[in-house]
């Protein structure tokens, strides 16, 4: 494994931690600034919007420099944003810091995916991408619970100071370990945008929005579901989220490994399994043991889609993959926002705290249909008429 992947994983760990840890310290932040919880919630919403907007914007601006320099710039932006949050004297400054940090998120994973894939042989690209994303999954297992604990014991400012330090480590790692390279030849803003003429790129992003959106339809409302329906205490929710993070970690590695062998079959399996697991969650949520197992499965199957989807985008936009890759990262956050909104609608309609699971199953099932369509279009374009389950691994 190239050591440069470790540097990318460290950066991903810091980014994943800052994205989700705010949810664990939100009450303390709200109390410190004298704002309501819904107002403090803009620290979550603002971050998500910054990811969606920052991914394509910064990626386009970065076409004039090498990918290593771009990664270093993004980690610098991440450091500035989190440092600003740590010392913010008023809520508006805190929100500004969150948005600044979020601008680096999508572009880092987008550019990082291209760099990771370029460090290994073609048949190992999905595994390399999954190793970078391993940092994001570990953030949910270690970083978020640890950051929440620090925030509760020492103060939320200490949490963001630690995240800032993680950013410094990530920046130094990129500077030291990622190989130097010139600006990608022949890549301009025009060629990057030209990748979006390929319908497969749009299908991949739609699969990302719907597939991973299915996960967040359920997980966004996991606290009330586990406490009001399953019967767990409020304190147990943190450990349930750790189980979810463990599932993400395992699913990411498995997804990367098998996507290198047979990309689309892996995607069919993970999306189909995710839709089924979310359907099951409606019923297993009434039992503590089964609920914990199902939550872990949802995390594993949901993140098993990430390496194959990201590699599919890279393959389809091979001439200029950076912008398409970053846009696909933005699609994850768009899916999170859409799913959370839809889940809130069905709860508000009086359908209960398990109803977002049905929404998630519908979203993931639709993503599976789009994956089947993408595979059919790919076979037609290649003039191949073989069964779906017999797709040649050489495609990846």
From TrEMBL:
Topology class, membrane: Multi-pass membrane protein
Name this protein carries in UniProt: MFS transporter
Organism: Saccharothrix mutabilis subsp. mutabilis
Pfam families according to UniProt: MFS_1 (PF07690)
Transmembrane parts of this sequence: 41-61, 73-94, 100-121, 128-150, 156-178, 199-223, 229-250, 262-283, 289-309, 330-352, 358-377
Major localization class: membrane
Record keyword Membrane present: yes
Key word Transmembrane helix present: yes
Keywords: Cell membrane, Membrane, Transmembrane, Transmembrane helix
Subcellular location: Cell membrane
């Amino acid at each position: 494994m190239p050591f440069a992947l470790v540097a990318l994983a460290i950066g991903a760990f810091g980014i994943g931690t800052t994205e989700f840890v705010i949810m664990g310290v939100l009450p303390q932040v709200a109390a410190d600034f004298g704002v309501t919880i819904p107002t403090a919630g803009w620290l979550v919403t603002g971050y998500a919007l910054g990811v969606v907007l920052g991914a394509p914007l910064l990626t386009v601006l970065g076409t004039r420099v090498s990918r290593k320099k771009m990664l270093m710039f993004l980690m610098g932006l991440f450091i500035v944003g989190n440092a600003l949050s740590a010392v913010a004297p008023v809520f508006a400054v805190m929100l500004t810091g969150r948005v600044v940090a979020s601008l680096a998120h999508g572009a880092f994973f987008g550019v990082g995916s291209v760099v990771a894939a370029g460090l290994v042989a073609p048949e190992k690209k999905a595994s390399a991408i999954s190793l970078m994303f391993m940092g994001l999954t570990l953030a949910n297992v270690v970083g978020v619970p640890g950051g929440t604990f620090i925030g509760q014991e020492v103060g939320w400012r200490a949490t963001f100071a630690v995240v800032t330090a993680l950013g410094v480590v990530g920046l130094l790692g990129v500077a030291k370990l990622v190989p130097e390279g010139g600006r990608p030849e022949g890549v301009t803003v025009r060629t990057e945008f030209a990748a979006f003429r390929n319908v497969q790129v749009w299908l991949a992003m739609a699969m990302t929005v719907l597939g991973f959106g299915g996960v967040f339809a359920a997980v966004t409302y996991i606290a009330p579901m586990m406490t009001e329906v399953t019967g767990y205490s409020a304190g147990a929710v943190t450990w349930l989220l750790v189980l979810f993070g463990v599932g993400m970690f395992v699913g990411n590695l498995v997804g990367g490994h098998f996507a290198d062998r047979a990309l689309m079959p892996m995607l069919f399996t993970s999306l189909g399994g995710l839709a089924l697991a979310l359907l099951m969650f409606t019923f297993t949520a009434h039992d503590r043991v089964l609920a914990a197992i199902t939550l872990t499965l949802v995390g594993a199957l949901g993140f098993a889609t990430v390496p194959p989807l990201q590699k599919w985008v890279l393959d389809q936009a091979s001439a200029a993959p950076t912008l398409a890759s970053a846009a696909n990262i933005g699609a994850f956050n768009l899916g999170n926002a859409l799913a959370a909104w839809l889940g809130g609608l069905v709860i508000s309609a009086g359908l209960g705290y398990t109803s977002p699971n049905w929404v998630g199953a519908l979203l993931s099932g639709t993503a599976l249909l789009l994956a089947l369509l993408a595979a059919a279009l790919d076979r037609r374009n290649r003039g191949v008429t073989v069964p779906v389950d017999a797709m040649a691994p050489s495609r990846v």
